[in-house]
Design brief:
This protein is α+β, with helices and mostly antiparallel strands and 133 residues long. It has two helices and six strands; from the N terminus they run αββαββββ. Strands 1-2-4-5-6-3 form a six-stranded antiparallel β-sheet. The protein starts with 11 loop residues before the first helix and ends with a strand. Belongs to the thioesterase PaaI family.
Length: 133
């Protein structure tokens, strides 16, 4: 699957400005702007926006590896440690698979800033289920 086939328009990813930049079986990369739509009320990057970015790359990575005609995938569990605050600029999420199973995949996600400083580290488990009609 290629990145241009993934539609983010009219989704949370689109609303947050998330852009996928790399998609391979072993790595997913996406960026997100840090600006008022991704801020918490005090002007800093919202932890929830970082979690949405992390789950996006994990879900896209899983989706890329399943049979999209017969299977679907959904975030099952996610955790995040917010390491550093950020007020503006761009953050980049890089996801790599820790486990590629038949019914679940587990992804390690690191979110960094333009200087490659760690902003957030996350782990996301994605469930793989039969696609419903």
């Amino acid at each position: 699957m290629t990145i241009d086939k993934i539609q983010t328009q009219n989704t949370l990813a689109g609303a947050l400005g998330i852009e996928l930049t790399e998609l391979t079986p072993d790595r997913v990369v996406a960026t997100m702007p840090v600006h008022p739509p991704t801020h918490q009320p005090f002007g800093y990057l919202y932890g929830g926006a970082s979690v949405a970015l992390a789950e996006t790359v994990a879900s896209v990575g899983t989706w890329n590896l399943i049979d999209q005609a017969t299977q679907a995938c959904f975030g099952l569990e996610i955790n995040a440690n917010h390491i550093r605050s950020k007020r503006d600029g761009i953050v980049t999420a890089t996801a790599t698979p820790l486990h590629k199973g038949r019914t679940t995949m587990v992804w390690d996600i690191k979110i960094t800033d333009e200087a490659d400083k760690l902003i957030c580290v996350s782990r996301c488990t994605v469930a793989i289920v039969p696609q419903s009609s």
